[in-house]
Amino acid sequence: MPSLELAARMEQALRLSRGALSTRAVKPAGSPTWRRTAFFKRFCKMKGRYRLQRDRDSWIRLRAASKIDRSLYDTCVQSIFKKHGREAFRELLHFASWDSGPEMLVWLRLLATFALIAYVPIPRLGWSRVPIVDFKTGEVVGHRLWPALIIDGPVPITLFPQVSFQGLSFCLDILACVKLDHRIVWLDVEVDGGGHRPRNDGDRARILGLRRLKVTLEDALHGDFERNLVERLIQEAQLEAA
User: Fold this and answer.
1) In the chain, helix, strand, coil percent, each to 5?
2) CA 163 – CA 196 distance, rounded (Å)
3) Could you give the CA distance from residue 215 to residue 218 in angstroms, rounded to a whole number?
4) What is the per-residue pLDDT across 79-108, written as a single tens digit (0 to 9) for each?
5) pTM assigned to the model
6) Which helix (H) or strand (E) holds 91?
7) What is the pLDDT of residue 192?
């Protein structure tokens, strides 16, 4: 399929009214084992998914990602449609938010391989350090069903996009929850992109007490990016837990 046609179809798919989208809770798509995993039983089935605030619509971030590597972008989107279905992916784009093209590309690559779509209250997985709030209004929203990606492997990993905290003036690109055998570890994943401010990364780690994992555009374009990222997340979690 021509790249321009695919991009146009994606943009058209995103231009939907909120009323056209389902409000039902969604289980992780395509996972044969999630029901049998005790950790993932914490994922609720209820109404009330939270839609993240954003400065630009998701289709703009998709266009930015497509300009980084058109061939890679087309491959990812077609794989996502096949694996998750158009509606589930469209709803994720409606509820989630990203700050840059590289950040979107990271999520596209994970979705195209072994990440699954889910919605879960972040505190239900054990987060209790600082209340999670809406970036614009300051309303506490961590208890709402938050859009997430899960990696259902030997070490379960859950990734939440653009998380804001009470009393703090910044968002985390990704709040990662890594379930080790004996404890849950939270990590800050920062993606270098047009909207990212690296000078604030030290403050993020210091104020929240989280280990920081940095993802560069070069990392996101690597052929084994997905596996490399999972390995790095597990390594950082093990260091934190030691």
Assistant:
1) 45, 20, 35
2) 14
3) 8
4) 999 998 888 788 778 888 888 899 999 999
5) 0.79
6) helix 86-95
7) 86
Residue 67 CA neighbour count, 13 Å, CB half: 9
Q: What would the two tokens of residue 38 be? A: 């005790």
242 SS3 class = coil
Residue 234's Cβ-count burial label (10 Å; 0-12, 13-18, 19+) is: middle
Residue 55 near residue 194, CB atoms below 8 Å: no
Distance CA 233, CA 157 (A): 8
CA 20 to chain centre: 23
pLDDT at residue 51 is higher than 50: yes
CB-based contacts of 120, cutoff 8 Å, min separation 6:
42, 43, 44, 145, 146, 148, 158
Rg over CA atoms, the chain = 17
Max Cα separation, the chain?
A: 50
Is 143:123 a contact under the CB 8 Å cutoff?
yes
Mind listing the pLDDT tens digit for each residue in 151-176? 988 899 999 998 989 888 788 999 99
- Residue written as tokens 């209340």? 131
Model confidence at 241: pLDDT above 60 = yes
Return the residue matching tokens 């990203």: 98
